[in-house]
């Protein structure tokens, strides 16, 4: 499968069938919805796969992009994609990071361990395997670790046929369906 950013740049695709890159129409819808918030934002991409969402927001002016992917082979592809996009934009290494670690485990670390001293993210994108039941656990870990800004948004990409329940302490701000994929936008309650 060939991956392309909305600007036309080609990205590497992850090997095998373990990763499910976010469909172009869903990416475009997310980017349009978040357009006023992207420039200068801090973006956390949990279960980032190929890194395509992280690359999209980096090219739209996010100040900091952190991607977390546990599969080493897929994380290597994401690292190459982010590196290529960052180089094309003239972004320095301080603007993006990729961590090859399981998302819940990564969220267990102290937030102040981020390289620039700030560990609060404006936008957090969660795209775990749809059948993994990780959504609630990720939301709990984000909340308990204070990883999200007070006015921040957490976005869940999930299967329309099996949408996870909104966890306690969170509110559903928006929900949009794109065929078999649904995007849920959550804020802290």
Short descriptors:
alpha/beta; globular; 189 residues; Rossmann fold; 5 helices; seven-stranded mixed β-sheet; two-stranded antiparallel sheet; single chain
Protein architecture, described:
The chain is of the alpha/beta class. It has a single domain, classed as Vaccinia Virus protein VP39 (Rossmann fold). It contains 5 helices and 9 strands, in the order E-E-H-E-H-E-H-E-H-E-H-E-E-E. The strands form 2 sheets. A 7-stranded mixed sheet has the order 5-4-3-6-7-9-8, with helices on both faces. Strands 1-2 form a two-stranded antiparallel sheet. Helix 2 packs parallel to helix 3.
Brief account:
By secondary structure, this protein is α/β, with parallel strands linked by helices. It has helices at 24-38, 52-59, 72-89, 103-108, 135-144, and strands at 3-4, 10-11, 42-46, 64-68, 96-99, 121-126, 148-159, 170-178, 181-188. The longest helix has 18 residues, at 72-89.
- Rg calc: 15 Å
- Which range does the strand content fall in? 25-35%
Count of extended strands: 9
The name of the CATH architecture is: 3-Layer(aba) Sandwich
Q: Characterize the overall form.
A: globular
pLDDT averaged residue by residue: 88
Low-confidence stretches: 113-117
Secondary structural class: alpha/beta
Specify the CATH homologous superfamily: Vaccinia Virus protein VP39
Number of helices: 5
Tally of domains? 1
Q: In CATH, what is the class?
A: Alpha Beta
């Amino acid at each position: 499968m060939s991956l392309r950013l909305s600007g036309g740049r080609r990205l590497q695709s992850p090997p095998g069938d373990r990763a499910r890159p976010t469909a172009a129409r869903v990416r475009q819808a997310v980017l349009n919805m978040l357009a006023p918030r992207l420039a200068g934002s801090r973006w956390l991409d949990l279960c980032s796969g190929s890194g395509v969402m992280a690359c999209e927001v980096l090219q739209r002016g996010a100040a900091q992009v952190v991607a977390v992917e546990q599969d080493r082979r897929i994380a290597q592809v994401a690292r190459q994609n982010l590196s290529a996009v960052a180089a094309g934009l003239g972004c320095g290494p301080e603007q993006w990071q990729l961590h090859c670690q399981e998302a819940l485990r990564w969220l267990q670390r102290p937030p102040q361990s981020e390289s620039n001293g700030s560990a609060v993210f404006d936008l957090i994108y969660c795209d775990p395997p749809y059948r993994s039941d990780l959504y609630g656990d990720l939301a709990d870990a984000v909340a308990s670790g204070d990883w999200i800004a007070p006015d921040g948004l957490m976005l869940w990409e999930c299967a329309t046929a099996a949408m996870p329940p909104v966890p306690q302490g969170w509110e559903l701000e928006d929900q949009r369906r794109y065929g078999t994929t649904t995007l849920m936008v959550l804020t802290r309650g």
